[in-house]
Amino acid sequence: MQNKRRKAGAVAAIALALMFILPACAFGPESSRNLVSSSAGEAATQDSQEEAVRSDSSGSERVAAQEGVSSVSGSSRDVLVPEPVSASADENKDAVYKTNAEVRVRTAPSTDSEIYKSLPENTEVEVKGEEDGWYQIRLDGAIYYIRKDLVTKTDGSSETAAASGGGKTVVIDPGHQAKADQSQEPVGPGSSEMKAKVTGGATGKTTGLTEYDLNLQIGLKLQTILTERGYDVVMTRTSNDVNISNSERAGIANDANAAAFIRIHANGSENSGVSGAMTICQTSSNPYNGNLYAKSHALAEDVLDNLAASAQCRKQSVWETDTMSGINWCKVPATIVEVGYLSNPEEEKKLAADDYQQKLAEGIANGVDQFFAS
Q: Which of these three, 124, 158, 192, is where a domain ends?
């Protein structure tokens, strides 16, 4: 009887043990396999998405970098995984520059291209790239061009492209004025020969264009271009209602210690068929400033060559003479630019056109650039 009780107790003990052991054998290993599989699946998903981000550097990577995180799907939930900021995000960011002066924005990287608009000094622009000495800028939802030497970085750095003008002073004298002054002054310092202080200039017979007004229009255009190129520009006049003698105009250039003095005029002839541009300088034996002949002649030659090329007009020559009081009183390199003949009906019409005046001004400016570059 006692043995039967012992056997029954042993059987009960075994049965109780089996109740704990069998479920563990039946379900434990499968649960462990599911747990490993789930972890591996999440890791594989994360790896594949990270690989996709790395392979699409132009899209997903930049989005992840901008947003700072990327979403990775798990078996039962979404996990936010921090994404490293891409270096290309900063490298591709548009650089912001500021205009150094009032500048012209053009439709192509050339001074001969169409002007889209002018921007005031200290205007911020987004630079997208560069091409042939020009910056591509984003403006009004489109791409335009601006000269590299006319803008400065706004990041506080001292980097500024060297302007072609380099701060050199150029004095522009739009010849003549609305009312002539026929009172006399010496043709040169200490000279007994006298000459009218300033005349009113020629007038076109076809359009009625006056020389003094034409000279001012071209002079103001030239002022804008040279300022854009980094020159310090001084105007002898910005209005027709003035009274400034030729010697006084030379004095303005002398006082400014000009690196170049550009005097703008238009020509006339009894022969209405004569056309073309020419420039004037003193002779090498000029008694007042013959020592400036070489520089003045080089300036006159460079301006004439570039003006004729820009305007596509007939090129005459450099006339050397000591009869011009506005040159004789100069202590700086100077030239008179005769842009064309108001006595020629066809050329007069061209001279009256704004786009042709712009070409003349561009050509003169190119000549000034060449003079200083040589």
A: 158
